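Handout, tutorial session.
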Amino acid sequence: MQQPEEFDIIQHFEDRTEAELACGLLVSAGLDAKLEEHEMLHGFSDSLPIGGAVGLMVPPAQVEDARALLASARASGGTVAADILPENS
């Protein structure tokens, strides 16, 4: 039986849309990013996670690269992924 791959939470976001954008940025750069799973609050909105913050996760071996990409995005004003990807991508 194969064990599930471990992931580390590298950042929490209060806004799910912002978390999804950051996750998409990392995935577009070739990283194995995903969002922390939450039970969803049904009724008023199907997109509000219980407990507030949404965690952005990557495998331990990709933590440094992921943090560097997120820092580059913040430093450049949150530009599109193509503007901050490494030249070798």
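The second record follows below. Compare its token runs with those of the first.
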Amino acid sequence: MSDTKKSKDAEDILSEFHDNALPEDEPKLPSPEDEPKLPSPEDEPKLPSPEDEPKLPSPEDEPKLPSPESKNNDVEDRDVIFVGTKPIMTYVSATLTQLSTRSTVTIKARGKRITQAVDVSQMIVKRMNTVGYVISDVRILSDSLMSQDGKLRNVSTIEIDITKN
């Protein structure tokens, strides 16, 4: 076969494919024009700018509430340590920490914890005697509390003030 005949046969084959653009068993692919259009950024709703947001009042604008310490006129610089179920040394270290910055610290306890409050105060005064901590005041009170069964009960309370001598 000659080269011209080969090229003529190839052209005939190609022309057959072009004439029968797509056979019936092949699926038709969508054209780019058929694709759905996505909204453009200009079509999106606009969010309010930060300038439109309402301004919150600053902490300087808020009214000042009186502190619980300001109600007590005899000692203005006082902090309170409430004795609970933790180990005694926890309350000793908390009291000593407060005494480093405050002039007076009050140890407060109710009911069964009164003995622990006394132990805390004695550990500070007796073991830290070189520093000069002293018990300046002791107040024994009774609080009326509602129990779980709905009865009014009296609970003993102690407040021990410790100051640096």
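Points raised in discussion: The domain at 78-164 is CATH 3.30.110.20 (Translation Initiation Factor IF3).
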